[in-house]
Design brief:
Keywords: Membrane, Transmembrane, Transmembrane helix. This is DUF3426 domain-containing protein. It is a single chain. The chain is an alpha+beta fold. The chain folds into two domains: about 1-50; about 60-190, Immunoglobulin-like (Sandwich), CATH 2.60.40. It contains four helices and six strands. It has helices at about 1-5, 15-50, 65-70, 85-90; strands at about 100-110, 115-125, 130-140, 145-155, 160-170, 180-190. It has a three-stranded antiparallel beta sheet with strand order 1-2-5, with no helix packed on it. The chain has a three-stranded antiparallel beta sheet with strand order 4-3-6. The longest helix is centred in the first third of the chain and has 36 residues, at about 15-50. The radius of gyration is 34 Å and the shape is rod-shaped.
């Protein structure tokens, strides 16, 4: 066959198909091996990453906040603090004892990074309130503390009534957050 191809000047291309097939086979085997090495590197890297210790920002800490002291403290003591500025602000502050959150839920929004809180605020005072400040404490499933987020709601709540706030964004939360508890911090008379 080489002799016939030499007549036409194509003898040098004889067997080129075989060489091409051999080169393709070698390249596919080489690509397959490279793909296996890449997969092995990814598996080993993920294994090492999972064995690393947690950072200080994500470490398990018990839930301890100063919210209970703020909620139970009577707001009438603001004038007893002694400073003239606190005495001037005392009539504007609402009593937190007659203001409470009766139900609350939360969900994720913003591709899972933001917390959206829904709650009902009950005002049993004889006056309307506004500028209600809430603090939401986020924790893991086991109860260990992650983050605190606060929000001031400017909308007034009428006296002896309740108002439902739906899907209020309170800020970014840790991806490990599983539980949320919102509490009232402050409010002003409307």
């Amino acid at each position: 066959m080489n002799v016939r191809l030499d007549r036409f000047g194509l003898g040098r291309f004889a067997g080129a198909g075989e060489r091409l097939a051999r080169a393709v086979t070698v390249a596919s085997v080489s690509f397959g091996r490279s793909l296996l090495w890449l997969l092995a590197a990814i598996i080993v890297g993920c294994g090492i990453w999972m064995l690393l210790p947690l950072s200080k920002g994500n470490s398990a800490q018990p839930v301890t906040t100063g919210l209970a002291a703020v909620e139970t403290a009577p707001s009438g003591n603001a004038a007893a603090a002694g400073s003239p500025s606190s005495a001037a602000q005392a009539p504007a502050m609402a009593e937190l004892g007659r203001l409470r959150i009766s139900s609350q839920t939360w969900r994720r929004g913003g591709l899972g990074s933001k917390a959206l809180v829904t709650f009902t605020l009950r005002n049993d005072n004889d006056y309307a309130v506004k500028d209600v400040e809430i603090v939401c404490v986020f924790a893991r499933r086991d109860g260990s503390h992650l983050t605190d987020r606060s929000r001031v709601l400017a909308e007034p709540v009428s006296m002896k009534s309740r108002k439902t706030y739906a899907h209020i964004p309170v800020g970014f939360v840790n991806v490990n957050a599983d539980q949320a508890k919102c509490s009232l911090v402050a409010a002003r008379r409307a």
